[in-house]
Amino acid sequence: MTVYRRKFYVFNQGRPVPALIRNYEQRDFPDLIRIQQECFPPPFLSELWWNTKQLHNHVTLFPEGALCIEINGEIMGSMTGVLVDFDPKHPDHTWEDITDSGYISNHNPNGKTLYVVDISVRPSYRKLGLGQWLMLAMYDVVVYRRLDRLLGGGRIPGYHKKAKEMTPEQYLEAVIKGELKDPVLSFLLRCGRIPIGIVNNYLEDTESSNYGALMEWKNPFHTRILK
Ligand SMILES: CC(C)(COP(=O)(O)OP(=O)(O)OC[C@H]1O[C@@H](n2cnc3c(N)ncnc32)[C@H](O)[C@@H]1OP(=O)(O)O)[C@@H](O)C(=O)NCCC(=O)NCCS
Predict the structure, then answer these.
(1) Which of 145, 138, 227 shows the shortest CA–CA distance to 188?
(2) pLDDT (0 to 100) of residue 225
């Protein structure tokens, strides 16, 4: 396994604080489970929080896709991926299917798409750029492994407030135009992800009315066949 380790500084109220992105391991499981509980409060279903078996699969099946971020030595967030074969012509899927409900036993070492199983940052450490740093680290994995893309279904937790007025497609359009802001969708756009479309029944998630916005980031390096 190739290990990821990036030391840098993030700015908290104008002051640099030491940060580290690294692969998470078994000893981190209790912290990761606690962070998920903080990150996905009700109405999000507690059954969807990480359990030890899922985390064990992440660190054994695809350890390069299991990343966490530490601030001053304490884990503040994590991001997890799985390799899949994705056919852009048939983009419809559910989170359960494509991640095997977070167990990633469908992980395909030859898959060319790195699918995001989860990204979460502790509420008290949000808006410091930690989520974006985790995303950039996962782009590094895509480039390093010469994959085609990073892909994921973003939650649209602000949608339930607008569901009576607009379709999820119109909501996505309004967020892209900058007329509306969504806590997850706007974040993913800022991270360089491009929306591909809306997926119905993506995840049991009241706030998003069970919709997800499928968003990709393509590996900018291509192989050109020279004639
Ligand atoms: C989505 C999530 C991971 C983002 O994490 P984060 O660490 O807050 O992300 P960032 O700090 O990189 O970006 C968040 C916002 O803070 C802003 N920000 C970043 N650094 C900042 C700074 N120094 N000062 C002010 N704002 C800042 C970003 O511009 C971004 O704004 P935007 O939402 O308008 O794009 C986090 O909100 C989360 O865990 N949510 C709950 C779990 C969830 O829904 N996950 C997504 C599943 S699909």
Answers:
(1) 138
(2) 77
Strand 66-71 and strand 74-84: the pairing is: antiparallel
User: Which residue lies with its CA nearest to atom 39 of ligand 1?
Assistant: 120
The fold adopted by the segment(s) 1-86+95-147 is: Aminopeptidase (3.40.630)
Rounded-to-10 torsion of CA 133, 195, 159, 93: -100
For 131-158, write each residue's pLDDT tens digit: 999 999 999 999 999 999 999 999 999 9
Domain ranges across the chain: 1-86+95-147, 155-219
Q: Which residues of the chain have pLDDT under 50?
A: none
**Which atom of ligand 1 is found nearest the CA of 188?**
35
Chain center to CA of 134: 9
**Is the CB of residue 21 below 6 angstroms from any atom belonging to ligand 1?**
no
Asked if residues 120 and 39 have their Cβ atoms less than 8 Å apart, the reply is yes
